[in-house]
């Protein structure tokens, strides 16, 4: 039977490892309940898979493409606050669907939100006021719980299962098969050469493409930049040489949209653990003072799910911790 946090004879600060939206949401919930919490991340910036890069003078979203907020979701007020303050904007509820013969139809769904400053900016905003330590690489999380030998009130692993397993000492590769890789390829032209109402395209039955987003459209600046997300199979073939996938992606995007010239530039980003093949329906995992959260939980996998997972774990921990 899993032990509750109150049964673990430790006091002090909860350590949240992972600076994506789930980790920040968890830390925010703990801090909001008055619990000491520190967020650590090995990177130089927060964001996780909501990250991007500044390419040719503008931020390009290379991870998550957008976010949604279901009616009645606890995430909805958070998104509404971002919209009210101009950090996020309603983007579209309509995308195209394409197959081997090109674009076939459009599909309508929930409103998707984009950002002028890139999705990473929302994670940074959510972390305002938190105790954050960047460029801190955690080597091991052990029973107690302890982080690199130091005791903690609780530890949260806000990251894909394979990365979490390696921190707690699970045999390497045990969970890797449950996560799919992807390559994000940004492509920039001197001018826009596709329909203004394209927004994005879900691609099926392609050996190369799974999803294509109009980055200028979702960001609201009209920049002639597309971001293609590859199939897991293509990504797996090029994990050791991501740039080697660029020619196939360029050719597939040009054929799909009928673009008459190669892009002026491309940039390839590797996501080794892009998304879970089968996310759990449970909101989080928690055992003996060590919790797990992220988009591997609260299925289906999406930004809202990652936030809800972290927020739910933070609230649960706040209720269990002594004092």
Automatic annotation (TrEMBL):
One matching Pfam family, short form? Answer: NAD_binding_8
User: Cross-referenced InterPro entries, in alphabetical order?
Assistant: Amino_oxidase, FAD/NAD-bd_sf
In what residue span(s) does the Amine oxidase domain sit? 110-272
What molecular function does GO assign, one term?
oxidoreductase activity
Judging by the UniProt lineage, the source's domain of life is: Bacteria
Q: Which PANTHER family match?
A: FAD/NAD(P)-BINDING OXIDOREDUCTASE FAMILY PROTEIN (PTHR16128), FAD_NAD(P)-BINDING OXIDOREDUCTASE FAMILY PROTEIN (PTHR16128:SF5)
Name the UniProt record assigns to this protein: Amine oxidase domain-containing protein
Which species does the entry assign this protein to? Modestobacter versicolor
């Amino acid at each position: 039977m899993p032990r509750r946090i109150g049964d673990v004879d430790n006091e002090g600060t909860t350590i949240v490892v992972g600076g994506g939206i789930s980790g920040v949401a968890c830390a925010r919930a703990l801090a909001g309940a008055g619990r000491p919490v520190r967020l650590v991340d090995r990177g130089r910036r927060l964001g996780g898979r909501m990250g991007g890069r500044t390419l040719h003078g503008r931020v390009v979203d290379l991870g998550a493409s957008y976010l949604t907020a279901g009616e009645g979701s606890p995430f909805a007020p958070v998104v509404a606050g971002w919209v009210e303050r101009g950090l996020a904007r309603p983007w579209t509820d309509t995308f195209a669907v394409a197959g081997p013969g090109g674009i076939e139809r459009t599909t309508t769904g929930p409103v998707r939100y984009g950002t002028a400053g890139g999705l990473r900016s929302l994670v940074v905003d959510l972390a305002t006021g938190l105790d954050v330590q960047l460029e801190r690489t955690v080597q091991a999380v052990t029973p107690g719980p302890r982080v690199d030998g130091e005791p903690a009130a609780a530890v949260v692993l806000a990251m894909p299962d394979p990365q979490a397993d390696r921190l707690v000492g699970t045999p390497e590769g045990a969970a890797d098969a449950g996560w799919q890789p992807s390559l994000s390829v940004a492509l920039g032209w001197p001018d826009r050469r596709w329909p203004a109402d394209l927004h994005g395209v879900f691609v099926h039955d392609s050996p190369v493409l799974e999803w294509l987003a109009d980055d200028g459209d979702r960001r609201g600046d009209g920049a002639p930049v597309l971001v293609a997300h590859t199939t897991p199979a293509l990504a797996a073939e090029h994990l050791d040489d991501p740039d080697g996938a660029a020619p196939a992606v360029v050719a597939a995007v040009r054929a799909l949209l009928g673009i008459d010239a190669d892009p002026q530039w491309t940039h390839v980003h590797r996501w080794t653990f892009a998304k879970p093949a089968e996310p759990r329906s449970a909101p989080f995992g928690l055992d003996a003072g060590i919790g797990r959260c992220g988009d591997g939980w609260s299925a289906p996998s999406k930004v809202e799910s990652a936030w809800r997972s972290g927020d739910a774990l933070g609230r649960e921990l706040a209720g269990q911790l002594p004092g």
